[in-house]
Structures are given as structure tokens and as C-alpha cells.
Design goal:
heterodimer; A: 248 residues; alpha+beta; Ubiquitin-like (UB roll); Fumarate Reductase Iron-sulfur Protein, Chain B, domain 2; 2 domains; five-stranded mixed beta sheet; two-stranded antiparallel ribbon; 7 strands; B: 636 residues; FAD/NAD(P)-binding domain; Flavocytochrome C3, Chain A, domain 1; five-stranded parallel beta sheet; five-stranded antiparallel beta sheet; 17 helices; 19 strands
Chain lengths: 248, 636
């Protein structure tokens, strides 16, 4: 099949980008979306042009590196799917496809579709961990944790940090990302001790990085490749307010 | 003769003896010492965090945009530990024995015992960090069994064990960043190791965003840069996985071992087209409930569901009744290749076998299977558009894990003083074949529990050595070499992409130094690889500039893969026996089982780089077995 691509090209952080048209023929329905871009890049090399830069690594949906807006949707048309797991059978022959980077003030574009997501690392640095050093751990089975609690914590811990939630939110909010970490750790007994401090620091850091306020549209859950629930945002808000009240 | 520096004492006491006598550094002096850790996977992140917790200054490098994305995240199935929570007869000794046997008696006893011993603490560590391992309804940790063993010792977090352990290590690392003990350099690639007076004193790294070359000095350098299975191009590895850090260290004097011992994972998605970039792995845990079969008759054109029960050949159950579908990976992969080569393969390219869940679904119900493997079934559906609850998955062996890597002694130090190699980047614990769920374990144990003893032990002996700074001429020389290579790539006037060479290399190695090898195929491969490298130097084409440029990154990596490929073939050619993943067709029994030769090959091969175009030199580390008797590895 053949597609008409409109791809965001941008030289550097500071430079102005624009959409460039590419016609790509010879696409098989079994190809992944990124393999289609590989094919286009191979052709660009033959023409002596600079390839389209895009982030990708594991190509099995778990590393969180890939991510782009495809026809205005984070990771493309399928739900619960990263860009690398999207296959060309989801597109029609002759279709025009718009490809852009994830956009947010806190995710500056580096080149083409590659962005800087270190703001997510900063949020985790602010408190997204349990303060245990190597050597301190007690016997693992000394602390029974119910099956349901573990499963609920896992649902939150499944976040791959791709940034789709931010890219799709009209306020560019990182509420889903941050709340998933808050939930993962507050649900587990090991993480409860630090919960008040953690939630305040992480929420403050989120604001400092330039992410907006939760838009309450729940678009983040729709686009999340791990289908992380917006209920975690509710839990984060609850713990944030509780921490503020108890602090005074 | 290589000195592995194994401590004195009974095998069960060696590690305790080591820890009791390891040299210490007082807290005030620790903050004067700098350590570089390259790689932020489980081994790198856990090592960097643990050393920082002790008070050392750590610089942590990764080529990804965040430390959390290292390929450890992709391990699905689980992590082994001899906790014996199932009361099924497990123990440290049994785990040690299973691992030694699984590695076909080609690993070092003392290292393997230590791995099993430290497995206990790892589970405690991970739980304390908040890793949500699966639990029983009573609240205690659950286990499952994995290939090559008869007990349940595998801890798991759905099909995301690697990701969850990685998040634990990454968070520990971020905590140290927050207190200023670790500085992370993301989107940075190590391009050379800097030696001063024969010791590792720093690296040259390239900032992948700006293209700037940077010099970083330290008192010790740790490489935790993972495996090089991507040398085959089509593999289960991430696109960015590479050999460059360890290969460039090799060219600076670090020996490499077990180079051709590459594990082909039996449960991967088969290749279906020429533009394919990846062979996705489906967790081996699926073999707990899935049954593997092919049609009895060759060239059967029917779809799997049309083939009646009596016309199916459950070849693993037939050939290995004791272990059946849970036979170790090398055996399961080779058995699949044998059937595929015999014309019994299924799928559009006839290059796959069936992994069938119909019996398990009938016995346990679809809900139970969904709870255990739901994410894997969803992934299968996403990639293939096929519902595996209704028809068998099609799977095929793919290049996966490299047992080989940099040779290290008991301290995990390479032949270059001050250069350590951790996790998959070293060769140490898995012998000629790795058991499932032992790789997460090894990387974590190396990083959390071993290097934090052995690196200070080394540094304590270095205290009086003059501090090296980046103005040292050795840094300037290394930087100049790298600068030249980059310029050469950018000015190359060729016409073929780096990927073209990578794919050619991969195909060549799959055919000639893959699941099975022969003297002829390896000799051919060496000649072809030399030609391919020459063609690469002349014909590669890189577009774009010296700043952010993924083609430039690939070119450097492919150049190293091409040289590594040749060493793999030398290694496989020299070892005239079959052991574990290394199957030389000349050395097999009439019914196709591997024939090991303990008389002549019971040693670790350690290869020394002798220069471009020169034959590498072989050094030997004899393997001495005191705690176990060498036996024929049988799973029948």
C-alpha cells in the first residue's frame, strides 16, 4: 500500500520546525509503523537526505521510548498500544498520515520527533521511590501483602513513562504519570511511611517542570498504552490534600 | 594462564570469606573517589545506586533518553531465587547445581554458587523497593517453574518482571541523583576507554544530542552495557543494544570469553518479512502451560486447528519426557530447528512451531490462563492480529542472550585493572547456556551485592595513586581517535546504509555461526566477514550532520559488530566440541544430542585482541570442578 505522510521536521531545540510531505509506497500490512519509517529513512539515505530522527528501542511496547502523535493521537489509532506495536494493517491504502512529536512545554523537541522527557526523571527524583538502601531489606515474606493490594499496585506500576498522557492532555498535565507512581507506592505497606512527603514533593515538582493542571477530560487514560486508570489521579489528589491538612 | 582469584575455602564459604577479608575505605575517603558506570540497566543502575549509597561519587551513562529504558525492562518471565517457599526441595546448592548443569559445565563453580547464594537477598531487596511480585491469596510471595529445573523458584510480576525490577533499581538511582551522589548522563554513548599506566581511568563519551565529545575521568570504570545479541540484527534485543562499549574495551586490552555462546530463545515470534526489525520474545513462562508441536508430516498445508490430535508431533515431550515442554532453551531451540529443517515448520514462511494452550484452557479455564499470561496474549494479538486463546501461537527461535562477554575474575574485574564488567556484559555465570530467569538475577546480584564489595576492595589498594584528570595526554589521544572515526563516517562516499551491512552480517551469522555451526561454515564466515568489513569501510553511506544523528550512531555500532562477528567465529571454530548453546554439527550423538569434550575443552577461552586484521590470541582459564561431578547433561 501507499501512504502520504506529513512529518514534523525540526533541526534543533531552538529552531522552527515544519511539516514535510513524503510519499511512501510499497508498504506491507504486516510492517510495524516504525518499520515503515525505517523504510522511508532507508530511501532518504539513498537520496542523500538526513533521516527522520525518532526515539525507539525495545520495539515490544515496554521501554516507553517510542511515542509520536499520529493523526493527532498519541501512539496512533489503537488503544492500549505503543507506536512500535502499531501495525500498518491499521491504515488504509492512499491515506494521509500526520506524524508529529509529543508536544508539551515540559517536553522540548530535540530534533524531528525526538523530545526531551527528563522532566519525568525529575518528578521521580523528587520522591518517587521508597527510601531503602541496599542491605536494609528484611526477609521478603515477613511482610504479607494481600493479592488484591499487590495487583492494584501493579496496575499503577505498569506505567512505562512514555509521555502519551501529557501529549494528549490539553493542559499538558503529567497528573496521570505522577499519580501512577504515587499510587504504586502508597498502596504498598512498604511505601506508606513516606507517603505524605512524597506526594507533596512530586506534585510540586510536576508544577515546577511546567506541566499543567489536570484537565479532567480523562483523555490520558484513553491514550495510555498501559491503560492506567484516571482513578489514580483521584487517589493522588486525596493523598495530597490529606498531607497538606495533616501537615498544618 | 588466567588467574580468576577465587577465594579459599569450601564452596559455601568462599563468598563469606571474601567479604570478611575485603579491604574497606573509610567514609571520609569515599567521597573523594569517583566511579563511572556505563549502562543503566539492572546491573548498572543497581551498582551505581549501591555505590552512591556507600558515599562514592558516581557518574552514570546511558544512550537512552532516560535511565529507566535500558533493555532489562523487556525481560518478562521472572527472577530465580532459592527461597524454597514452595517447600519443594529447593536450596542454594540445588540452584547452584541446576545452573552449573544448565550451563553445560562451562562456568566457574565459585561464581555460580555465589549467584545462588545472593539470590535470597535480592528478593528481599526488590520487595523492600516496592516491586509488586505476584502473591498468593494469603499474602505470601508466589513462584512458578521455568525451563531446565524441577522446582518452583521463579518470582514474577505478571509478564513484566524485568520492567518492575528495573523500576526498583531506577528509583534507587533517582534517589541518589536527588541527594547529589549520582550524576546521570542520558543520551550519551561511551566511545572509548581511557587507560593510564595500563589502568582504566576514564572514558570518552559522545553527547548524542549535540554531538560533542566529552572526557570523563574516574578511579574505576564499570561497564554494565548488556549483551550483544543484536549482532544478528534480527533478535529479541532492543534496536539500540550494541557491543561498542565492551568491544572498544576489548581493543584496549580486556579479554573476551565465550564469545560465540549465544542463546537462541525458543519462544519468539517468527520472521514474516524482509523489512522486519525485531523478533519479539514471548515469555518462556508460556511453556508452563503451552504445549509445543508441529505436524507429523512434512509440508502440511493445513492450518494448525485443522490438524487432528493424532497427527501432531509434541516433539519436546517425545524426546525429553522428564522435562518435556520445560526443557532448557538451547535444547528446545535446537529441537525446533531440527523439525523446521525437516520441513515440518508451520506459518507462511514455514519457519515456526505451534505453542498450544487448548489443553491448559480446557483444564484450568480461560480466566486462569488470562490472569497468568493476559498481557502476552494481548501482545500476540496486537502484532499478529490473531487470538491465541482460539488458535495456537506460532513461535520460532531467535537470538537472545549472550553468555559470552568480557572475561572477569571473581571480583568481576576484567584483565584491565580498574575496569569492571557486570551483568550480561561479562561472561561469568551462565557457562555455555543460561537458564531462564537467571539473567535478571545475575545482573541484580552483580550490581547490588557483588560490585559494591569488590570495587571498594580494588579502590582501597589504589588510595595512594595519583589522581588522574582529563588533561592527561591519554584522554586527548583517545578523543582524537574517536574524532577521526566520526569524521571518516561523515565523509564516507559510499552508497549503502549501516542497516544494510547490519542485516547482511546478521543473516551470515544466523546461517554460519547460529544455532548450529561446522568447521566449514565458520571458516567461510571468517573470510566473508573480512570482506564485509572492508566493504563497510568503503561503501557505507551516512547522511546528516555531526550532531543528533542516529545513522552515525548505527555506523559506529555496526563497525564494532562486524569485528565482533569475526571473533565469534574464531571462538566457535577453536572449540571442537558441542556444549550448551554451542552446537558443532561434527560433535553429536547419532540421535542429535550434543557431545561435550571435557578432556580437551574444560576451560574458559579468553581472547586477546592483537590488532586490526590479526588473529586474536587464545588464553585459557581451566575450569576446576570440586563441588559437582562432570556429567552428561541429560533432560530425557
Amino acid at each position: 500500500m501507499k501512504l502520504y505522510l506529513k512529518v514534523w521536521r525540526q533541526e534543533h531545540r531552538e529552531s522552527k520546525g515544519k511539516m514535510i510531505d513524503y510519499e511512501v509506497g510499497g508498504i506491507s500490512v504486516h510492517m510495524s509503523f516504525l518499520e515503515m519509517l525505517d523504510m522511508l529513512n532507508e530511501r532518504l539515505i539513498q537520496k542523500g537526505e538526513r533521516v527522520i530522527e525518532f526515539d525507539h528501542d525495545c520495539r515490544e511496547g515496554i521501554c516507553g521510548a517510542c511515542g509520536m502523535m499520529i493523526n493527532g493521537r498519541a501512539h496512533g489509532p489503537l488503544s492500549g498500544t505503543t507506536t512500535c506495536q502499531l501495525h500498518m494493517r491499521s491504515f488504509k491504502d492512499g491515506e494521509t498520515v500526520y506524524i508529529e512529536p509529543f508536544r508539551a512545554a515540559a517536553f522540548p523537541v530535540l530534533r524531528d520527533l525526538k523530545i526531551d522527557r527528563s522532566s519525568f526523571d525529575h518528578i521521580i527524583q523528587a520522591g518517587g521511590y521508597i527510601s531503602t538502601s541496599t542491605g536494609q531489606a528484611p526477609e521478603a515474606n515477613s511482610l504479607p501483602i494481600s493479592h488484591d493490594t499487590t495487583e492494584a499496585a501493579f496496575d499503577a506500576a505498569a506505567c512505562i513513562g512514555c509521555g502519551a498522557c501529557v501529549a494528549t492532555c490539553k493542559n499538558s498535565s503529567a497528573a496521570l504519570f505522577t499519580s501512577a507512581k504515587v499510587s504504586h507506592l502508597v498502596l504498598l505497606p512498604q511505601g506508606k511511611l513516606e507517603s505524605a512527603n512524597r506526594v507533596i514533593k512530586m506534585v510540586n515538582q510536576m508544577d515546577e517542570e511546567g506541566f499543567g493542571h489536570c484537565s479532567n477530560t480523562e483523555a490520558c487514560e484513553v491514550e495510555c498504552p498501559q491503560e492506567i486508570s484516571v482513578l489514580h489521579i483521584g487517589r493522588m489528589n486525596f493523598h495530597y490534600n490529606k498531607a497538606l491538612i495533616l501537615r498544618k | 594462564m588466567m588467574d580468576s582469584k577465587i577465594p579459599e575455602g569450601d564452596i559455601a564459604d568462599k563468598w563469606s570469606n571474601y567479604k570478611n577479608h575485603a579491604k574497606l575505605i573509610n567514609p571520609a575517603n569515599r567521597k573523594k573517589l569517583n566511579i563511572i558506570v556505563v549502562g543503566t540497566g539492572l546491573a548498572g543502575a543497581s551498582c551505581a545506586a549501591s555505590l552512591a549509597e556507600q558515599g562514592y561519587n558516581v557518574k552514570s551513562f546511558c544512550f537512552q533518553d532516560s535511565a529507566r529504558r535500558a533493555h532489562s525492562v523487556a525481560a518478562q518471565g521472572g527472577v530465580n531465587a532459592a527461597k524454597n517457599y514452595k517447600n519443594d526441595g529447593d536450596s542454594v546448592y540445588r540452584m547452584f547445581y541446576d545452573t552449573i548443569k544448565g550451563g553445560d559445565f562451562r562456568s566457574r563453580e565459585a561464581n555460580v554458587y555465589r549467584l545462588a547464594e545472593c539470590s535470597l537477598a535480592l528478593i528481599d531487596q526488590a520487595v523492600a523497593q516496592g516491586v509488586p511480585f505476584a502473591r498468593e491469596y494469603g499474602g505470601y510471595l508466589n513462584n512458578r517453574s521455568f525451563g531446565g529445573v524441577q522446582v518452583s523458584r521463579t518470582f514474577y510480576a505478571r509478564g513484566q518482571t524485568g520492567q518492575q525490577l528495573m523500576i526498583g533499581a531506577y528509583q534507587a538511582l533517582m534517589r541518589q541523583v536527588a541527594v547529589g551522589k549520582v550524576k546521570t548522563y542520558t543520551r550519551h554513548e561511551m566511545l572509548d576507554l581511557v587507560l593510564v599506566d595500563g589502568k582504566a581511568k576514564g572514558i570518552i563519551a559522545r553527547n548524542l544530542e549535540t554531538g560533542a565529545l566529552e572526557r570523563h575521568a574516574a578511579n574505576a570504570v564499570v561497564l554494565a552495557t548488556g549483551g550483544y545479541g543484536k549482532v544478528y540484527y534480527l533478535s529479541t534485543l532492543a534496536m539500540g543494544c550494541n557491543t561498542s562499549a565492551i568491544w572498544r574495551a576489548h581493543k584496549k586490552g580486556a579479554f573476551m570469553s565465550g564469545v560465540s555462546w549465544i542463546q537462541f530463545h525458543p519462544t519468539c515470534l517468527p520472521q514474516i518479512g524482509e523489512t522486519q526489525s525485531k523478533l519479539t520474545l514471548m515469555s518462556e513462562s508460556l511453556r508452563n502451560d503451552g504445549r509445543i508441536w508441529v505436524p507429523k508430516k512434512a509440508n502440511d498445508e493445513r492450518t494448525p486447528n485443522e490438524i487432528p490430535e493424532e497427527e501432531r508431533d509434541y516433539y519436546l515431550e517425545r524426546r525429553y519426557p522428564a522435562f518435556g515442554n520445560l526443557s532448557p532453551r538451547d535444547i528446545a531451540s535446537r529441537a525446533a530447528k531440527e523439525r523446521i529443517d525437516a520441513g515440518c515448520g508451520v506459518g507462511p514462511m514455514k519457519n515456526a512451531v505451534c505453542l498450544d494452550f487448548s489443553k491448559a484452557i480446557k483444564e484450568q479455564g480461560k480466566d486462569k490462563i488470562e490472569e497468568k499470561y493476559g498481557n502476552l496474549f494481548r501482545m500476540y494479538d496486537k502484532i499478529n492480529g490473531v487470538n491465541a486463546y482460539k488458535e495456537p501461537m506460532l513461535i520460532s527461535p531467535a537470538a537472545h542472550f549472550t553468555m559470552g562477554g568480557l572475561w572477569v575474575d571473581y571480583d568481576l574485574m576484567t584483565t584491565i585493572p580498574g575496569l569492571f564488567a557486570l551483568g550480561e556484559a561479562n561472561f561469568s555465570d551462565h557457562g555455555a547456556n543460561r537458564l531462564g530467569a537467571n539473567s535478571l538475577l545475575q545482573s541484580c546480584v552483580d550490581g547490588y551485592f557483588i560490585a559494591p564489595y569488590t570495587i571498594p576492595n580494588f579502590l582501597a589498594g589504589e588510595a595512594k595513586v595519583e589522581k588522574v584528570t582529563t588533561d592527561h595526554p591519554a584522554f586527548a589521544a583517545a578523543e582524537e581517535t574517536i574524532k577521526k572515526q566520526i569524521e571518516q563516517f561523515l565523509n564516507a562516499k559510499g552508497h549503502l546504509s549501516a542497516d544494510h551491512f547490519h542485516k547482511t552480517l546478521g543473516k551470515l551469522l544466523y546461517d554460519k555461526c547460529g544455532l548450529s555451526r561446522t568447521k566449514e561454515s565458520l571458516e567461510d564466515a571468517i573470510v566473508e566477514l573480512k570482506a564485509l568489513k572492508k566493504s563497510f569501510d568503503k561503501d557505507v553511506k551516512i547522511t546528516g550532520d555531526g550532531q543528533m544523528n542516529s545513522e552515525l550512531e548505527k555506523a559506529g555500532r555496526v563497525s564494532d559488530f562486524l569485528e565482533l562477528g569475526e571473533l565469534m567465529c574464531h571462538d566457535a571454530l577453536q572449540r571442537e566440541e558441542s556444549c550448551g548453546a554451542h552446537f558443532r554439527e561434527e560433535y553429536q550423538t547419532p540421535d542429535g544430542e550434543a557431545v561435550r569434550n571435557d578432556e580437551d575443552f574444560c576451560y574458559v577461552s579468553a581472547w586477546e585482541w592483537k590488532g586490526e586484521g590479526k588473529k586474536p590470541e587464545l588464553h585459557k582459564e581451566p575450569l576446576i570442578f570440586e563441588a559437582v561431578a562432570l556429567t552428561v547433561r541429560s533432560y530425557k
